[in-house]
Amino acid sequence: MTNEDGRPSVVLVVAHPDHDSATWAIAREVEQGIQADGNTTATTHDLTKSGFDPIFGKQDLAVHRLRGEVPADVRREQELLDSADAIALLFPVHWWSMPALAKGWIDRVFARGWAYDTSSESGQSAVRALHFIAVAGLDEGTYDRRRYKEAMTTQMVHGVAGYCGIAESSIKFLYGTETDDPRVHEQLIDQAYRIGADLAQRAQSARDQEAA
């Protein structure tokens, strides 16, 4: 993956329809954190606004079977991601997972032959780094007590990124977005900014490794 201007690049993919939501407030702060070093570029990709179709159809199945061409809308998504040193998918937690739009985006875009290749011994992925940011309405204690964090980590970090052979992956949780406590809101904004700054560092590290 290369960025034409030589600067490390992060693509932040957001799956939420309401720009006045906590999810989008967090997304904007993550974007600020990414750009804070004055060097890393951030591209925020609004899945709802893009009109991306999350339904895995016959064309997608043909691609999976290595018998068809990649649909044009999927190819556009892949080309966007090809320019990134790191990808972050930010979403509100729905039923202890990601919403249908985000899951369908994974289903279609992270296709066989691009995100992973079961026919190759190397199993090399076109994606170098994939990071998940989960916006959770409830508190951290609930997630720990019911093992939701563990389940989602297994599903996304191991089940998606690990299966694809992606070299670097993580999941971050931002808890308590449904509270009215302004102190929690301030903490969430601070956490989001720091997540963005960390993504910038990871993108720079990936760029340095590529140049070595």
UniProtKB/TrEMBL annotation:
Where in this chain does the record put each Flavodoxin-like fold domain? Answer: 10-191
* Keywords tagged on the record: Oxidoreductase
Q: Which family does it belong to?
A: Belongs to the NAD(P)H dehydrogenase (quinone) family.
Name-wise, this protein is NAD(P)H-dependent oxidoreductase
